[in-house]
Amino acid sequence: MTKHYPLSMALHARAQKTLVGGVNSPVRSFRRVGGQPLMAVRGEGPYLWDADGNRYIDTVMSYGPHLFGHAHPKVCEAVTKAMRNSSCLGMSSEAEIEWAELLLKRLPKAEKVRAMSTGTEACATAIRLARGYTKRDKILKFSGHYHGHVDSLMVAAGSGLATLADASRPVPDSAGIPKALTDLAVVSEFNNLTLLEEVFQRHGNEFAAAILEPVMGNMGVIPPDPVFLRELRELTRTYGAVLIFDEVMTGLRVGRNSAQGLFGVEPDLTCLGKIIGGGLPLSALAGRAEIMDHLAPLGPVYQAGTLSGNPVSIAAGIAMMKLIDSENPYERLETFGAKLQGWISDEAARCRLPVRVERVASMISVFFRQDKLRNDRDALATDGNLFNQYFWNMLEEGFMLPPSPYEACFLATSHLELGDDVWAAGLRRVFERIRT
Ligand SMILES: Cc1ncc(COP(=O)(O)O)c(C=O)c1O
To answer: pTM for the full model?
Structure first.
């Protein structure tokens, strides 16, 4: 290894004295890949710089928000301008209306939206709203899907079939969550139609909602079987449960109309975050007015926030959506994503490494196993040691990857400026090193 990280190491040592584990979000600790976490200094376009001055091609892109790369001038300009009019107003403003109009144009079946600050908050509100609307308590979720650290949804499933056998007694994923809450969750398996139908036969009339990531992104990228999504839509409709798409990751990323547009399945409620705030704290819950109007102040389901619809975040969100309209990034990202998928698969095959690349639009994951992945069990059955080698070798080669085999890489339009050979040659050297 030729890269050195003395300043990152010193900063992390200092951070550990005041920040829990030296981080403000667990994945940043690099524990999964077994090494010292790097400390970031700045990002610009496709690049990220660490504290030691090493420059990386960043494929983390802050876990999704930067569709055009870091620090896009238009987003920076909008944020600076908004900030001069105060970072927080405490009253509604015209910019929030413009942001809502721009957002709802992209979600054809959604009529109303509520702005919040984090994806977790949007998912927690979606669950409370579905419960308040249906007057039912049970929630259907899918193993391996992450909806933020919402108490009701922090449920480990084990295998789907095992879960069905004891569906009313799932185990909380974290200490501090009352089991009485997670007992209200039923956990099924993504892309498993047979299990889905059985679960609805047993519990369908009790479900307030079914919530899922329409493209699984939090075990690495696992595409949906479109038939599975359509069947879930049908079953939720038949049994009177609210269908919630958690599009915090996929929203405005996998296409202009998000995953619901890409796969042609319309949910009742959509959770959004990341891109809609251009990298500032901004999330949203959007959906049919009939359901959304159950939120306070119109309805009995309470939800509020000092920072909700924050003017600086809203300005970044508007700038992002205007950029999307003027740049139309999706076709270019699809073409580049397909090329990158091909390079990774080809170079791995040349080196006889068991690699499967899964991708939906500009979300991409490299799994160390040969076969197609359909669910979290498949993701857990990949080779973690090979991934760790891949991660550290890519870092050495100047590519920043998420420090976990269970996170997606995100492509941005700024990646397209780098030239094909930067990627293909870098990948070739990395796989050759792993092979030996
Ligand atoms: C699909 C999904 N839902 C919800 C969340 C939670 O969002 P946040 O981290 O903003 O609370 C995430 C975060 O990565 C996510 O990927």
So the answer is: 0.96
